[in-house]
Amino acid sequence: MNRLKKKLTAAVIGLSMVASMGAGAYAASNLTPIKAFLNWGLSFKVNGKPFQLRDGNGGTLSPITYNNTTYLPIRSVSDALGIAVHVDNKGLIQLGETVDGISIATGFEGDNRTKDPSKTVYDGKDYKDVFLDNNSGDRSASFMLYPKKKYQKLYIQVAAIGKDIKAFNVQDSDTDIELKTKPIAMGDGLVTIEVDIGGSDALYVWAETSDGGSVFIPMTTSYFK
Q: Does the keyword Signal belong to this entry (predicted)?
């Protein structure tokens, strides 16, 4: 995270904020009625560019003013700053990285996923559940991941088998912004790649490899955080 984003994050967290994520997930006994005002007189810029507060469906939102304090919808703020926000079923809101990693196996979509013991072993260790593209020909081995703006980081492990991986890429599927790209040599072993995915809803992951080469990605040790 760059210095400007850190300053913006600190300023936003310093404000009193509310989560525009629906009260249905929380017990009614935790809700206290108040008299507040929608403050349509405020406007916002992020990094010098106008920014409109919106809900998860794209609807326009207004800040709320209550007792001389302005409350901003946390989902809109997190979208503006590219910071992940995650709410659990107990009402705990986490900004940025979560404490516990969540396996990329959750919501994984793509071919070449296998739990075949003859294919899940790398360097003497059985990873149980892996993405293994060992098809023939020069190709792009690819799949989708869906962090749904809940996570700040992706830690994904990758190994090149048989031939070097020319380029391993992670791209924001909605904006087409390339978040990470790097070559992976066979001699590198099982590489852990860290990717900043704050604000990303869907990721397109692909590896450029050659005929005779395989792409090995363990699900059990690759995770969102």
A: yes
